[in-house]
Amino acid sequence: MRAGKVEQRHVLDALRSLTVDGRLLFVTRFVRLFAYGALSVVLVLYLVGLGLTESATGVLLTATLLGDTDRAVRFHHARGAHVAER
After folding, report:
1. Are 73 and 44 within one domain?
2. 1 plus 34 within the same structural domain
3. Are 61 and 39 in contact (CB under 8 A)?
4. For residue 29, which of 20, 21, 39, 66 sits 20 to 30 Å off, Cα-Cα?
5. Are residues 7 and 37 in the same domain?
6. 46 pLDDT more than 90
7. Half-sphere exposure for 61 (CA within 13 Å, toward CB)
């Protein structure tokens, strides 16, 4: 058996062994990520409908993504420093 098939089987076995709470976490994460994706599409259509150019909309969404990434990295580093102090 190929390595990819073995890893895939292990993942499927792990998913099957989840408790109800574990499955609920996966479902809620999927729904949340799907909603974020749908919201992005709707937001672009709304902004273009308001008169923003496609380029301006792209710049706005890119700036938002960069800001979110920066915030996540800062949070990660701050949390890492806090945990290391323990």
Report:
1. no
2. yes
3. no
4. 66
5. yes
6. yes
7. 19
